[in-house]
C-alpha cells in the first residue's frame, strides 16, 4: 500500500506577519501621518456634531431630511433622535456618526475613482475584481489585527478597518453604472468631437449617478455595521456601548445601543437613497413649474 503524500505546510500567516513587521519598521512615518489625519478629522467632526444641544442638532438633521427626502424622514428624525437622547446615548451616537461619516467619505473618495478606472479599462477591471472579492469575503475582525499594529488603539484602526470593509460595493456599483450607460449616448458625444474626459464628466457619470449613489448607500450601511466591531479596538461610541453590554451580559444596555445604531442606519440610508433622485423640495418645485408653466 503506497503511503499518502502529505503536502508541506505553507506559512502564509508568517509571510503576512513579516510583511506587517516590515511595514511597521520602514513605513511608520506614513502610518503616523495617516493616523494623525484620521484622528483629527474624527475629533473635529465630533466637535461639530456636539456644538449644538441635542434638540438643536435634531432640528438641523430634520430640516436636512425634509429638504432631501421629505416630511416622513423629517418626522422619523425628530422621534428617533429624541429617543436616542432619552436613552442617554447622544454623545455615543455622535461619536459613532462622526466615525461613520469620516469612514464613508474616505471610502467614497477611494472607491469612485477606482470604479471609474475599472469601467474604462478591462485590464484594471480584471485586476480589481479579485481584490474586491478578497476584501469583501475576508472576516471583518481580521482587518483589526494589522490595523492595531499600524495605528495602535483608538478610532483610527476602526476607521481604517471600516474603509477596507466598506469599499467594494462602491467600486462595483460605480463600474456597473458607467458600463451600463447607453453606448449610443457615448457615441453621440464622440461624434460631436467631445473629449473623453468631458464625455465621462458630462455624460457617463450623470447617467450612472443612481448606481453610484446606490454604491455610496451600501458603503455607508457597511460602515455602520462595523461600528460594533470598531468598538473592540477602543473606537468608543455605540460600538463601545454594545460591547460593554455583551461583556456584562447586560441585555438592556446592548439592546439600547443596537436601537441607536438602527436609528442612525435608517436616517443615513433614507437620506443617501433620496440623494440619488434629487432633493425632495426641489423635485416638488420642478414638477409644479412643469404643471403650471409661465
Summarize the helices and strands and which ones pair or pack.
Elements: H1 12-26, H2 28-50, H3 54-68, H4 71-86, H5 90-120, H6 122-137, H7 140-151, H8 155-179, H9 183-191, H10 196-225, H11 227-230, H12 237-247, H13 251-275, H14 280-291
Helix pairs in contact: 2-5, 2-8, 3-4, 4-13, 5-6, 5-8, 5-10, 5-12, 6-8, 7-8, 8-10, 9-10, 10-13, 12-13
Entry keywords:
83% helix; disordered C terminus; 294 residues
Number of helices: 14
Shape: globular
Amino- and carboxy-terminal Cα gap: 94 Å
Pick out the low-confidence regions. 282-294
* Main pleated-sheet profile: none
Strand proportion: under 5%
Radius of gyration: 23 Å
Mean pLDDT: 81
Helix content: over 70%
SSE string, helix = H, strand = E?
Answer: HHHHHHHHHHHHHH
Structural class: mainly alpha
DSSP strand count? 0
Explain what the structure shows:
The structure is a single chain. It contains 14 helices and no strands. With about 290 residues, the protein is mainly α. The relative contact order is 0.12.
Outline:
By secondary structure, the protein is mainly alpha-helical. The chain is built from 14 helices and no strands.
Amino acid at each position: 500500500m503506497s503511503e499518502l503524500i502529505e503536502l508541506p505546510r505553507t506559512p502564509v500567516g508568517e509571510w503576512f506577519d513579516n510583511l506587517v513587521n516590515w511595514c511597521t519598521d520602514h513605513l511608520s512615518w506614513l502610518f503616523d501621518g495617516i493616523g494623525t489625519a484620521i484622528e483629527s478629522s474624527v475629533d473635529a467632526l465630533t466637535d461639530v456634531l456636539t456644538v449644538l444641544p441635542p434638540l438643536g442638532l435634531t432640528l438641523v438633521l430634520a430640516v436636512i431630511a425634509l429638504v432631501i427626502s421629505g416630511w416622513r424622514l423629517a418626522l422619523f428624525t425628530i422621534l428617533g433622535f429624541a429617543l436616542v437622547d432619552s436613552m442617554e446615548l447622544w454623545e455615543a451616537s455622535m461619536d459613532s456618526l462622526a466615525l461613520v461619516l469620516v469612514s464613508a467619505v474616505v471610502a467614497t473618495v477611494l472607491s469612485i475613482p477606482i470604479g471609474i478606472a475599472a469601467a474604462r479599462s478591462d485590464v484594471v477591471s480584471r485586476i480589481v475584481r479579485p481584490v474586491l472579492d478578497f476584501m469583501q469575503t475576508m472576516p471583518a475582525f481580521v482587518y483589526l489585527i494589522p490595523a492595531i499594529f499600524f495605528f495602535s488603539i483608538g478610532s483610527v484602526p476602526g476607521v481604517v478597518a471600516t474603509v477596507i470593509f466598506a469599499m467594494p460595493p462602491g467600486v462595483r456599483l460605480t463600474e456597473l453604472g458607467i458600463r451600463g450607460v447607453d453606448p449610443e449616448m457615448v457615441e453621440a458625444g464622440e461624434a460631436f468631437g467631445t473629449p473623453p474626459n468631458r464625455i465621462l464628466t458630462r455624460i457617463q457619470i450623470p447617467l450612472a449617478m443612481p448606481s453610484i449613489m446606490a454604491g455610496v448607500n451600501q458603503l455607508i450601511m457597511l460602515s455602520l455595521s462595523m461600528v460594533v466591531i470598531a468598538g473592540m479596538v477602543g473606537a468608543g461610541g455605540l460600538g463601545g456601548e454594545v460591547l460593554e453590554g455583551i461583556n456584562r451580559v447586560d441585555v438592556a444596555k446592548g439592546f439600547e445601543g443596537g436601537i441607536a445604531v438602527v436609528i442612525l442606519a435608517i436616517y443615513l440610508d433614507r437620506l443617501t437613497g433620496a440623494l440619488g433622485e434629487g432633493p425632495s423640495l426641489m423635485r416638488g418645485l420642478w414638477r409644479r413649474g412643469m404643471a403650471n408653466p409661465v
